[in-house]
C-alpha cells in the first residue's frame, strides 16, 4: 500500500486480528485452516474490510480451506481437497507478478 | 333462488347474445373505426394481462455450503486434540497480544474485541464442578463457549459469560 496515512484506530484492531488468524491457519493442515479462515472472513465482514486478492486466492471460496494454485497446460488451476470445488484461471500470466503463487505440476 | 339468477330462460339466451353483439358494435363504432373493431376485437379472445415469463427456478450457485454439508465435512469440529500441536499457536497468540497491548489506551474494549484462539485459559468458576481449575489452550471460540485442549490432550468446553 502506498498510503502514508496511519490506518484509523477502529479498523486497526480488526486488521490485527485478521492478520493473526491468517497466520495461525498457515501452521495447520486439513480442517483447522477452514475454521480460522472462516473466522477471519466473519471478523472482517462486520467492518467491511477488504482482503487483498492475493490472499483471497489462497482460500477456497466455498469451504475456506487453504488452497494452492497449480500450473496445468496454459492455465492456473486448483482443486480444493476438502469440498472438491475447482477453479481455473485461463491466463496464468495473472500470477507472474505475485511472488510465484503457482507451483508447476 | 340461486338457480334463477344463474340460468336465464332459454328463449332469452339468444336474444341476450344478439343484444350484446349489437351493443358492442355500436359502442365501438362511436369511438373508433369499424375496420379496427372487426379485425382485432370481434370474435377473438383477447389477452388482458401479460403472461408471466418466468422460466424454471434458478439453481442456487455454489457460493456457500449448507449447514448439512458443513456437518458432513466436519468443518466445525475439532478432531486433533493433541496439546503439542497447539503450542505454536500459543506462541503466535503471545506475539499478537504483545502487539495489541503496546499502547495502553482503552484496555477493556481491547480485551473484549481481541481474539482468544491460542490463549491459555484456566476455568475458575463453573456450574460443572469438575471443570474448575482446568487449564488449556483455546481452540474454538463461539458466542457462548470456549473450547480448550488440556495438557492431557482432552477437549473441554465451558460456558463463558462476559
TrEMBL record, chain A:
<dbReference type="GO" id="GO:0046872">
    <property type="term" value="F:metal ion binding"/>
</dbReference>
<comment type="similarity">
    <text>Belongs to the eukaryotic/archaeal RNase P protein component 4 family.</text>
</comment>
<keyword id="KW-0862">Zinc</keyword>
<keyword id="KW-0819">tRNA processing</keyword>
<keyword id="KW-0479">Metal-binding</keyword>
<protein>
    <submittedName>
        <fullName>Ribonuclease P protein subunit p21</fullName>
    </submittedName>
</protein>
<dbReference type="GO" id="GO:0005655">
    <property type="term" value="C:nucleolar ribonuclease P complex"/>
</dbReference>
<dbReference type="Pfam" id="PF04032">
    <property type="entry name" value="Rpr2"/>
</dbReference>
<dbReference type="InterPro" id="IPR007175">
    <property type="entry name" value="Rpr2/Snm1/Rpp21"/>
</dbReference>
<dbReference type="GO" id="GO:0008033">
    <property type="term" value="P:tRNA processing"/>
</dbReference>
From TrEMBL, chain B:
<protein>
    <submittedName>
        <fullName>RNase P/RNase MRP complex subunit</fullName>
    </submittedName>
</protein>
<dbReference type="GO" id="GO:0005634">
    <property type="term" value="C:nucleus"/>
</dbReference>
<dbReference type="GO" id="GO:0000172">
    <property type="term" value="C:ribonuclease MRP complex"/>
</dbReference>
<dbReference type="InterPro" id="IPR016848">
    <property type="entry name" value="RNase_P/MRP_Rpp29-subunit"/>
</dbReference>
<dbReference type="GO" id="GO:0001682">
    <property type="term" value="P:tRNA 5'-leader removal"/>
</dbReference>
<dbReference type="Pfam" id="PF01868">
    <property type="entry name" value="RNase_P-MRP_p29"/>
</dbReference>
<dbReference type="InterPro" id="IPR002730">
    <property type="entry name" value="Rpp29/RNP1"/>
</dbReference>
<dbReference type="GO" id="GO:0006364">
    <property type="term" value="P:rRNA processing"/>
</dbReference>
<dbReference type="InterPro" id="IPR023534">
    <property type="entry name" value="Rof/RNase_P-like"/>
</dbReference>
<dbReference type="GO" id="GO:0033204">
    <property type="term" value="F:ribonuclease P RNA binding"/>
</dbReference>
<comment type="similarity">
    <text>Belongs to the eukaryotic/archaeal RNase P protein component 1 family.</text>
</comment>
<dbReference type="InterPro" id="IPR036980">
    <property type="entry name" value="RNase_P/MRP_Rpp29_sf"/>
</dbReference>
<dbReference type="GO" id="GO:0030677">
    <property type="term" value="C:ribonuclease P complex"/>
</dbReference>
Amino acid at each position: 500500500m502506498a498510503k502514508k496515512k496511519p490506518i484509523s484506530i477502529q479498523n486497526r484492531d480488526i486488521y490485527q486480528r485478521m492478520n493473526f488468524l491468517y497466520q495461525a491457519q498457515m501452521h495447520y493442515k486439513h480442517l483447522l485452516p477452514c475454521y480460522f479462515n472462516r473466522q477471519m472472513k466473519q471478523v472482517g465482514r462486520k467492518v467491511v474490510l477488504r482482503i487483498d486478492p492475493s490472499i483471497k486466492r489462497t482460500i477456497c471460496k466455498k469451504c475456506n480451506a487453504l488452497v494452492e494454485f497449480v500450473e496445468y497446460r496454459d492455465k492456473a488451476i486448483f482443486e480444493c481437497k476438502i469440498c472438491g470445488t475447482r477453479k481455473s484461471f485461463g491466463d496464468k500470466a495473472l500470477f507472474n507478478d505475485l511472488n510465484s503463487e503457482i507451483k508447476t505440476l | 333462488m340461486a338457480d334463477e339468477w344463474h340460468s336465464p330462460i332459454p328463449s332469452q339466451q339468444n336474444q341476450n347474445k344478439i343484444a350484446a353483439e349489437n351493443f358492442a358494435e355500436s359502442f365501438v363504432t362511436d369511438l373508433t373505426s369499424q375496420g379496427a373493431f372487426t379485425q382485432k376485437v370481434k370474435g377473438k379472445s383477447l389477452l388482458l394481462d401479460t403472461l408471466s415469463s418466468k422460466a424454471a427456478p434458478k439453481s442456487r450457485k455454489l457460493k456457500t455450503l449448507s449447514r448439512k454439508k458443513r456437518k458432513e465435512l466436519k468443518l466445525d469440529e475439532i478432531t486433533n486434540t493433541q496439546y503439542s500441536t497447539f503450542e505454536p499457536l500459543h506462541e503466535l497468540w503471545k506475539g499478537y497480544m504483545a502487539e495489541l497491548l503496546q499502547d495502553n489506551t482503552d484496555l477493556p474494549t481491547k480485551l473484549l474485541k481481541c481474539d482468544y484462539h491460542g490463549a491459555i485459559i484456566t476455568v475458575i468458576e463453573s456450574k460443572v464442578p469438575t471443570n474448575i481449575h482446568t487449564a488449556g489452550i483455546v481452540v474454538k471460540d463461539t458466542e457462548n463457549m470456549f473450547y480448550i485442549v488440556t495438557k492431557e490432550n482432552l477437549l473441554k468446553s465451558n460456558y463463558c459469560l462476559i
